[in-house]
Structure formats: C-alpha cells, structure tokens
C-alpha cells in the first residue's frame, strides 16, 4: 500500500490515509548501482512498469521550473501565485502568470526522454505489458510525445475549472481570452495588467459564465482522490519503478518510489543529481534524462517481436 500520510504541499487527505505494510526482512538497499546491463535484464522481464516523472524530465525541453535560485516570474516565486488565496486576492495577476506559462509551453516540444517513454509504452503494450506514467508535471509534454496512459497528479496547464459550477475542460486557446493577449511578460519591471474579473477567462458550460481558474493543484489544496487511488493501484502492482527527473522533495509524490522500494521492487532513479531518496533505490543513473533514459528503455533482445 502507498502511504498517504502527507498531503500535497501541506494539507492532509485524511479520507485517503492508509498504512504501508513493510515486508518482513525488508531493509534499505545498499548504494545504488549504475549497471545499465543489470537494469536492462530486470526491465526485459517486468510486466507492469511505473514511471514517476518530475520537472527534470521537461527541463531539457526548456520548460522553466520556477524552483530554486532565479525561479521567479516578475518578483514572485510560483508559491506566491499558485494558491487559492493568491487567486482570490488578484485573479488578474495569477492569470497573467498562467497565461505566460501556457504560451511558453506552446513553443516547447517533447525531448528524447518523453519520446523514449512514449515509444516504450506503445511497444510493450503490444507484448501485453503495461507502462504507466505518474507525472508531477502540468505541461502535457508526455501527451504530446504520444503517451496515453498518464496520471497527471498535479493537473494540467491546458485544463480549466469553473469556480462557480466546477466544470472542468481542456482549453488550448491562445490566448485563452482576448484581455490576456500580449500580457504576462516575466520581466520584473513589468506592471500588472489589472484586468477586470469580467474580462478574465469565463465558463462557457451551459451558459454558466463563471470565472475560470487553471485546473492545477495549488499550494494548500489536496490532490485529486480519484487520481491518487489510480496511482496507488499502479504502484502497488508494479514490478519495476523508474523515477525520472524528480527531486523527491514534493509530497506526497516523494513517498511513492521509496514505498515501492520498501516492498522489494527494483526502483531506478534517473536524475542530474542525488536526491534524498537515492540511497533507497536499486539503481541510480546520473545525467540528463534525455541521454540516460532512451538506452535504458530501448528494445531488449529478449523482447517478443
């Protein structure tokens, strides 16, 4: 079972609280291996593979992460804008920020890591094997690469939710509304556009016309319980887990792979640096995901044709 004791960014999903049964005799693994041939042998036999992805898998596509030094939009970090309180105080500023992110994403393309995952999914599905992506990213690059079994636990930049009727829908308009055209510049000297609430994105579902918000999980909000339940089933049943480009510090996703490892399932980490969870895993492959992941997921000679 996947433990969900810690919520996303601070709140408790109390109705989802379950406890991990640690297998008898289980222990933290020794220093992880970087033996690609050994990983490939396990990969060739795995029937249900879970791939957990984070911001690092998209960084090579030029996607801003808004984490760490320099991770600012104007004078704000994402944490100061990505919350219900920020949206309530200044929906115009928050929509400028998300409009900027949406427009940036429309200029980006999937990199070799996204493409390798998508190709692996399609290839293994023909062999009766499953590959499920559990992504913390909101950029939809996995979808654009061709992946079709994705659990986006933090939502999507290209979905909206009405704060009045709750209707959620895909939205790829550019710009998302006329008032935001040419807005959202990230330069710290740029003044807020101060767009009227009535001119911000509005709900078109059954004539509601309520104010829309980005359908992403903000700081202080719970993750979607249905998506978490589906992720739990994937992680409980996987016989191989990959952790790709995630810092393993954002909860509850940071607990997913360590809990898989705790029940004796091989976990392979692909990242530019060690993370707080690295020592719990069987494998660690250091370097850009776009370089390390494709050879790891390429067709193995033992695979069915």
Automatic annotation (TrEMBL):
<feature type="binding site">
    <location>
        <position position="101"/>
    </location>
    <ligand>
        <name>substrate</name>
    </ligand>
</feature>
<feature type="binding site">
    <location>
        <position position="289"/>
    </location>
    <ligand>
        <name>NAD(+)</name>
    </ligand>
</feature>
<feature type="active site" description="Proton acceptor">
    <location>
        <position position="154"/>
    </location>
</feature>
<keyword id="KW-0520">NAD</keyword>
<dbReference type="InterPro" id="IPR050134">
    <property type="entry name" value="NAD-dep_sirtuin_deacylases"/>
</dbReference>
<dbReference type="GO" id="GO:0061697">
    <property type="term" value="F:protein-glutaryllysine deglutarylase activity"/>
</dbReference>
<feature type="binding site">
    <location>
        <position position="203"/>
    </location>
    <ligand>
        <name>Zn(2+)</name>
    </ligand>
</feature>
<keyword id="KW-0963">Cytoplasm</keyword>
<dbReference type="GO" id="GO:0017136">
    <property type="term" value="F:histone deacetylase activity, NAD-dependent"/>
</dbReference>
<dbReference type="GO" id="GO:0000035">
    <property type="term" value="F:acyl binding"/>
</dbReference>
<dbReference type="InterPro" id="IPR029035">
    <property type="entry name" value="DHS-like_NAD/FAD-binding_dom"/>
</dbReference>
<dbReference type="GO" id="GO:0008270">
    <property type="term" value="F:zinc ion binding"/>
</dbReference>
<comment type="function">
    <text>NAD-dependent lysine demalonylase, desuccinylase and deglutarylase that specifically removes malonyl, succinyl and glutaryl groups on target proteins. Has weak NAD-dependent protein deacetylase activity; however this activity may not be physiologically relevant in vivo.</text>
</comment>
<dbReference type="InterPro" id="IPR026590">
    <property type="entry name" value="Ssirtuin_cat_dom"/>
</dbReference>
<comment type="similarity">
    <text>Belongs to the sirtuin family. Class III subfamily.</text>
</comment>
<feature type="binding site">
    <location>
        <position position="162"/>
    </location>
    <ligand>
        <name>Zn(2+)</name>
    </ligand>
</feature>
<feature type="binding site">
    <location>
        <begin position="271"/>
        <end position="273"/>
    </location>
    <ligand>
        <name>NAD(+)</name>
    </ligand>
</feature>
<protein>
    <recommendedName>
        <fullName>NAD-dependent protein deacylase sirtuin-5, mitochondrial</fullName>
        <ecNumber>2.3.1.-</ecNumber>
    </recommendedName>
</protein>
<keyword id="KW-0496">Mitochondrion</keyword>
<keyword id="KW-0809">Transit peptide</keyword>
<keyword id="KW-0539">Nucleus</keyword>
<dbReference type="GO" id="GO:0005739">
    <property type="term" value="C:mitochondrion"/>
</dbReference>
<feature type="binding site">
    <location>
        <position position="208"/>
    </location>
    <ligand>
        <name>Zn(2+)</name>
    </ligand>
</feature>
<keyword id="KW-0808">Transferase</keyword>
<feature type="binding site">
    <location>
        <position position="98"/>
    </location>
    <ligand>
        <name>substrate</name>
    </ligand>
</feature>
<dbReference type="GO" id="GO:0036055">
    <property type="term" value="F:protein-succinyllysine desuccinylase activity"/>
</dbReference>
<dbReference type="GO" id="GO:0005634">
    <property type="term" value="C:nucleus"/>
</dbReference>
<dbReference type="Pfam" id="PF02146">
    <property type="entry name" value="SIR2"/>
</dbReference>
<feature type="binding site">
    <location>
        <begin position="54"/>
        <end position="73"/>
    </location>
    <ligand>
        <name>NAD(+)</name>
    </ligand>
</feature>
<dbReference type="GO" id="GO:0036054">
    <property type="term" value="F:protein-malonyllysine demalonylase activity"/>
</dbReference>
<keyword id="KW-0479">Metal-binding</keyword>
<dbReference type="InterPro" id="IPR003000">
    <property type="entry name" value="Sirtuin"/>
</dbReference>
<dbReference type="InterPro" id="IPR026591">
    <property type="entry name" value="Sirtuin_cat_small_dom_sf"/>
</dbReference>
<feature type="domain" description="Deacetylase sirtuin-type">
    <location>
        <begin position="29"/>
        <end position="303"/>
    </location>
</feature>
<dbReference type="InterPro" id="IPR027546">
    <property type="entry name" value="Sirtuin_class_III"/>
</dbReference>
<keyword id="KW-0862">Zinc</keyword>
<feature type="binding site">
    <location>
        <begin position="245"/>
        <end position="247"/>
    </location>
    <ligand>
        <name>NAD(+)</name>
    </ligand>
</feature>
<feature type="binding site">
    <location>
        <position position="165"/>
    </location>
    <ligand>
        <name>Zn(2+)</name>
    </ligand>
</feature>
<dbReference type="GO" id="GO:0070403">
    <property type="term" value="F:NAD+ binding"/>
</dbReference>
<feature type="binding site">
    <location>
        <begin position="136"/>
        <end position="139"/>
    </location>
    <ligand>
        <name>NAD(+)</name>
    </ligand>
</feature>
<dbReference type="GO" id="GO:0005829">
    <property type="term" value="C:cytosol"/>
</dbReference>
